[in-house]
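User: We ran a pulldown and think these components assemble together. Before we commit to crystallization trials, I'd like a predicted model of the whole complex to look at. Sequences follow.
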Amino acid sequence: MNDCITLAHGEGGRLYRELVEQVFLPAFDNVALNELGDSAVCPAFGDRLALTTDSFVVRPRFFPGGDIGRLAVSGTVNDLAVSGAQPLYLTCAMILEAGLPIDELRRICDSMAASARDAGVAVVTGDTKVVEKGACDGIFINTAGVGLFRREPLPQKIRPGDVILVSGSVGDHGLAVLAAREKLDFRPQLESDAAPLNGLIDALLQAVPETRALRDATRGGLTAVANEWAETSGVTVAIEETAVPVRPQVRSACQLLGLDPLHAANEGKVVAAVPERFADAALAALRKHPLGKDAAIIGRAESGPPRAVLITSIGARRILALPEGEQLPRIC
Amino acid sequence: MNDCITLAHGEGGRLYRELVEQVFLPAFDNVALNELGDSAVCPAFGDRLALTTDSFVVRPRFFPGGDIGRLAVSGTVNDLAVSGAQPLYLTCAMILEAGLPIDELRRICDSMAASARDAGVAVVTGDTKVVEKGACDGIFINTAGVGLFRREPLPQKIRPGDVILVSGSVGDHGLAVLAAREKLDFRPQLESDAAPLNGLIDALLQAVPETRALRDATRGGLTAVANEWAETSGVTVAIEETAVPVRPQVRSACQLLGLDPLHAANEGKVVAAVPERFADAALAALRKHPLGKDAAIIGRAESGPPRAVLITSIGARRILALPEGEQLPRIC
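Assistant: Here's a predicted model for the assembly, 664 residues in total across the polymer chains.
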């Protein structure tokens, strides 16, 4: 492990895992944490709470399709929803840089509030710290979320034969933020997909309670989800390249910038694994919801070594691995 | 209201209240938030959860008596405890600046873990973001806390005749951090009092369930608590200057720096208001606990205009008001 924190430590790859395994887990060792789920499952009142936390440091603060406030609500709501919990309450803590225009803060709060209404959650408590100019970059927002498990927490365990679905096009958020940051102009415009997914996920779980695993494809995109599932479930996760929905403008932007839309971040897309016999029901449930109208079946789990593979348009299979090191910092 | 955020917006005074009243409350309007308590009281499972959040940006990160990790656990645990809830779970989100030595991060995590063990809480979920060098100052930590109300939430309502107690000497944290930041050397050394107070508070509430209100005297110190209680309860809160415990080294440091120990921050002191007939029982319960051995009765609530007053050593009464504007930024 390096001696100092690097941007790569924030990217969810090998260095991040080392940090978790060598620093955080030894220090905080406990059952709920050690599961390393999107939300911790915590006993309370003889029942189970879901708890999660996320900080948002996106640059720029405003971008087509969203802003840091919409992200801060959607990201945390989605972490609760993909673990199978109903999101209920959010906390909101802001670190503000002296000099931030109050009008921007107001716009961000209004956006958070609108997203919270979309998700049906309440922001019940907050905290504000102000640091001197130069000590933070504008505004950082933390939201922690509390949810209730109405049913058993999802097993998050995938078996050979299970079918993998995605709720719509991938890469929209990552490319929209990158374009806004670098002031690149694409037509049609790139737009973030940031949205709370609990309604969509609820519809899926009602239609297919047998759903095995859900994940929102944020940092590292679809590639990160496929690799994580392969590793934790001990299966080969095979994704069909031509089946993955990618908007034309995202595809062009990726080609121009040398990026892969499968690695790029999403903030409004859920990846689902369901037993094969429920694949059509799951697809129909997703497509019936406005946020899932472009849903698609994109692959399946196979017996085999625990890795993610991409089946290309000509039927070849290649390893689907995350690039090492720094990718796109501060996209959320 | 100013057009831009200033350091004074973070100080808990008039500008901060304007921000809350003109930006946050209009955006996030809901019953739990509008109470503006140390913790939000949230229905769940037909019972009540306590939720709170706090970000920590203290400078320097290590100081005599504590560090940012100990603060991050103590501050959030104490916010739950003073509302009468039993702290159970913490979330922990870190924003790290590229270049932070991993060894420092490890020390901070170990300190958080030790404080969590002291408090009997588990850190159940986390998040890590890394920002580029210069985009934050070393490390910012957010902890959100979940607690259970084992009894009714405290009324936080004080009546004339009630007696005010503090669990020990005031100003220790604020002066210790300031001395460490400015590299001032006082003998004996100034030491922060940062500590989780839930054990002490539990002992007090068991001895005196009739306790009316509790507050940890953080930003703005004892003065802020006295003013807040005067305003929310519509009473005069009269503090006897000579009854307030202040360590000699804190008093000297304050004289040298032109500060008032009553305004300075504490991170391990609770202020309590109890009906007069329970004052001795409350004092005894506090003093029996290691964190309350220097507890004292320091004043009382009186019928009169809603303000805090200080009764000086010669018996004169003067308004006890917080200084306007920027005090000591980044002490927590």
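Chain A has a mean pLDDT of 94. That may be worth checking against your pulldown data before setting up trials.

User: Thanks, that helps.
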